[in-house]
Write a structure and sequence with these properties.
- It is built from 14 helices and 24 strands.
- The two termini are 34 Å apart.
- The chain has helices at residues 99-102, 121-130, 143-151, 161-177, 196-208, 224-238, 258-270, 301-311, 333-340, 344-357, 370-377, 395-406, 412-419, 421-426, and strands spanning 2-11, 14-23, 30-37, 46-53, 56-61, 70-73, 78-81, 83-85, 106-111, 136-139, 141-142, 181-185, 212-216, 242-244, 275-279, 284-287, 317-322, 361-366, 382-384, 443-446, 467-472, 475-479, 482-483, 491-494.
- With 497 residues, the chain is α/β, with parallel strands linked by helices.
């Protein structure tokens, strides 16, 4: 027998509704003992016991144990809040165990990214209520998705006032259903063709619900500076908090200038725009072959040559998916060009043409430097994300442990905060990502000394080391490097205005 459960958390500037299913009758209390607690707030570690009852943290400190309690002896391990992935594609995982996420310690994923989301949201939320995942799920409304629904194939232009009004209706419907806000992917079709004013009008609608704006900005390379200015303008004119998705400097002439970008974002914050960012700790991105052509001039050899010299290179572009010729998958563009005895620029244009005839492609390409990445990650207003899924790029299995181990010059409490409460704050879920009385028991028992990524481009699906066990809403979902086949994840909704 199952019963529906509803919880409310009230944080600063936000009210969050969590809806899910829990087992009846109530399970025994969990009591974690002999654990070092890093509570997600930035406080230094401390030793305590933690009591969990019906999925909620009930008490912290020196606790009395009753015979009815289920005691978890941490044996000196570290107990931290479950990690919050503010830019995730793990909902594409065919398994409800979402092993790629939980094996890193991720307990909440934020989807509806890059301008694409389930629409309408209400039926999707209903489906998750009936068949929950091992993780909690919250979502944005995707601008590309609602634009596609209104404009169809005729999207290579600015929207009319009537079309924007129709998009507003769809956005309002899904904000009322509990979306976190509006998400754009302005580097992708059809959002590429949207005027800034269109986005501002829609962002203003999300702001009326106390929602937020997250954006894969219009350019991460050629026109990065202009894209950041556009994002700041949207935040200012719509009066809405702005999160820049997977912030990066993906143009060789920009390398080494991360501090300049952060200086501009700090200026915007001083001007009243609440701008933040998430970052994944890899020099490689994953997207489509066409994303490096902002003018969509795929037969322009000069544009293709620029992409393969300034934005990446043939040795650094890995073909991840290619339905037209599956044998190309896993090879670099340089390797394919060599096997064909052709110039990489010509091969690049030919692969795009082939993919237009037989759809289905993606590439993983190197465009960033480690120095810039960790400068961005060190910013006071950036948090960690994966931008990952269960296949393709190793970030889907290793982003969080990679950040944690690479940034070991920072105190553990600051690294955990960037993965938990700061991430929650940046998507408007204040009160999550913490070990506090009254918070959800999304918890990770870990060994900080051995927590590290193991996934590689050759072996993508390797779980991280150092994660001992993971609980979502007080139910264990991961132990001994595998899922437990428990699916206690809840839907996280922003309340209607």
């Amino acid at each position: 027998m199952r019963r529906r459960s509803i919880f409310f958390w009230k944080g600063v500037g936000s009210l969050i509704l969590l809806v899910g299913a829990c087992q009846s009758p109530s399970p025994p209390d969990l009591v974690f003992t002999q654990v070092q607690v890093v509570d997600g707030t930035g406080n230094p570690p401390y030793w305590a016991s933690v009591r969990v009852s019906e999925g909620i943290i009930q008490d912290i400190g020196e606790l009395q144990i009753s015979p009815a309690d289920s005691v978890i002896n941490g044996k000196g391990a570290t107990l931290v809040p479950g990690f919050i992935d503010t830019h995730s594609h793990h909902d594409s995982d065919p398994s409800p165990s979402v092993l790629a996420a939980v094996s890193q310690g991720i307990t909440t994923i934020i989807i509806g990214q890059d301008g694409f989301s389930h629409i309408p949201l209400a039926p999707y939320f209903d489906s998750l209520s009936l068949k929950p995942l091992a993780v909690n799920v919250a979502t944005y409304v995707g601008h590309n998705s609602i634009r596609s629904q209104i404009m169809g194939a005729d999207f290579r232009r600015e929207a009319t006032g009537e079309e924007i009004a129709q998009m507003t209706e769809l956005l309002t419907r899904d904000m009322e259903a509990g979306a976190l806000g509006l998400g754009t992917g302005l580097e992708y079709d059809p959002g590429l063709y949207a005027a800034t004013e269109e986005v501002i009008q829609l962002a203003t609608v999300a702001a009326a619900f106390q929602g937020r704006y997250t954006s894969h900005i219009r350019s991460e390379d050629i026109h990065l500076e202009q894209a950041i200015e556009e994002c700041i303008r949207i935040g200012k004119e719509a009066d809405i908090p702005v999160q820049i998705s997977h912030l990066k400097l993906a143009r060789k002439s920009l390398w080494g200038k991360a501090a300049d970008i952060l200086k501009r974002l700090d200026e915007a914050r001083q001007d009243g725009v609440e701008v933040t960012a998430d970052v994944y700790p890899y020099e490689y991105w994953q997207s489509t072959m066409t994303v490096l052509f902002p003018k969509r001039d795929f037969t322009n050899r000069a544009s293709a040559s620029f992409a393969l010299t300034e934005l990446t290179d043939p040795e650094g572009m890995i073909i991840a998916d290619f339905t037209a010729v599956p044998s190309y998958e896993g090879k670099t563009l340089a390797e394919i060009a060599h096997s064909r005895g052709e110039d990489p620029v010509d091969v690049y244009m030919d692969l795009i043409a082939m993919a237009q005839e037989v759809p289905g492609e993606s590439v993983i390409a190197k465009s960033m430097t480690a120095e810039d990445i960790f400068t961005l990650l060190s910013w006071a207003h950036s948090n960690v994300c994966s931008d990952g899924s269960s296949r393709g790029h190793p970030r889907g299995w290793g982003a969080f442990p990679r950040y944690f181990s690479k940034m070991d010059s920072l105190p553990i409490e600051e690294r955990i905060r960037k993965m938990t409460s700061l991430a929650a704050e940046h998507v408007g879920l204040a009160g999550m990502g913490v070990i506090e009385v009254g918070a959800a028991a999304d918890l990770v028992l870990m060994n900080p000394e051995t927590y590290a990524d193991r996934a590689t481009f050759d072996q993508v699906k390797r779980v991280a080391s150092g994660i001992l066990s993971v609980w979502v809403n007080g139910v264990k979902v991961y132990e001994n490097s595998q899922g437990t086949a428990n699916f206690p994840g809840r839907i996280i909704k922003r309340m209607s205005k």
